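Now for a specimen:

…
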Amino acid sequence: MLHRLSMPLRAAAMAAGALILLVTFTPLVPWTGRLLSATWTDTDRGVLIVLAADAITFSGPEPNLAIGQGSYWRAIDAIYVWRHGHFRTILLSGLHSAETVKPLLVASGVPESAIVVENRASSTRENALFVKPVLAGLPGPFVLLTSDYHMYRASHCFAREGIAVETLPAPDLLKRSNTLVLRWQAFWDLATEFVKIAYYRVKGWI
């Protein structure tokens, strides 16, 4: 009986060890991230669509919001692209993006008049749904900026809504995977993203 129980435990331990070695000592994470990051574009004009991610809520006498890690790195990349390109407009999409991402863009030199905010979307599908009527009133081209590992699902959601975008992945996961301390965090983000991709496919959203 003990022998039969120990065999699955040994198999589980071996599988866990193999996973630790793969994630820690091989290029599995950055390689998989590149697969999801889609095609990089050289387009530096038109409308830059930036998808906000998380926000952090601090409790107190009055609830306070702060920009989350994912949104922060997308915003930093958007600032770089704005400074080195010729975009007319940055379109922010995502819940709380007006309170968290927009102030960082403005403080970094992006004119407030050049920023349009869609502040309702709480998912990638809603990003595409709620951005579509806004883009109808703006001249293209349209360039989508989001985290590299998120780009596959995001670009397919936009395509599903008939929105033609060029893709500009922010190298979020690729940067984190270069550091051993952050590589496991990047791995879990990848694992979560694959679950979401599967769910979106089942729902017919991509």
